Amino acid sequence: MENFLPPSKDFIDLMALKRVEPGHFVSLGVAYQPIRAPGVYGGHLLAQSLYAASKTIDSPFNEYNELKEGEKHSVFICNNLEAQFLDGNSNRRPFHYFVKNLRDGGRYRVRAVHVVQYKENEIECEENEIPVFSAFVSFKKPENKDDHMVMKEHETESKESWSHLPPGVKLDVEPEKLPISPDLDLPLFTSWATKNFGKLNLFDRAIDVRKVPLELMEQPERYTDRKAYHIYKVNGNLSDDPNLHLCAHIYCSDQNSMFVGSQLLGKIDKIRRVCSLSQSIVFFPSPCNDTIRADDSWTTLETQTTRSGDGRLLYTGKLYDANGVMFGEFIQDGLALYSKM
Length: 341
Hints:
Oligomer: single chain
Strand content: 25-35%
């Protein structure tokens, strides 16, 4: 434990950035790094890359806006992020986010984000860069009122077919009484952490993540039909910036991803090595930003393993708000090596 820095407990502090110059941001908070992991939690890089990109677009929530006289703020909300995890890293050194403007259209803004750390105790220059992450981030301007009405009709229909928790699963407990999602959802870790620390999160976390135990659900025989469920909510309050709330959602999308995927596959006890390789997520928020708030109600994360083989695992998921409206969907490709015994 002495080798690990405790992460920032507040999500705003966790995402905090300082602009060095236009298009260059440096992280200020301490990222969460799982014990024995070669780098920080992947969801942190996903989320902070989105946040850095949002600081280069026109928005009333962007303190770095440089509007010309007479111009008014528009609101552009992230609709897509595609990312590659490149190399190991450390939460003991800051992350540098270099954001490049690829497109400024009437409806869409597109940014490329390249994330590096510098070698320890070395001068911060290109020769000492360690590329750790890269992403393309797209932002969309909301459409007109008629399009909003179509979305609302779809949401009403979706609400009738979804029940906050998994269909067929009846729980007689409040969400807060569901078990906490552990730092590492591995039997060896949960046993060790419980025995030595009496808890499954070794550090206080900025987001409260709970899991629906798999044993409470009747799982299909085919692993591709099995599903896992988590619910989460940010501790404390966030601003009204919709992109900050989407940062919280994409942060949670990577929660124990390869471990949960291995559980659904029935190989959790055979893991040799797992890690995330790439992820793509599409957001489809309601014109009413309340549907994507991550701080005032529980969001449901539904995930499954749709393919496994050749040392890889395909992990997919959907995000539902408290009303049962699906507003996000992602796919993650991961390294997954298992013992044959």
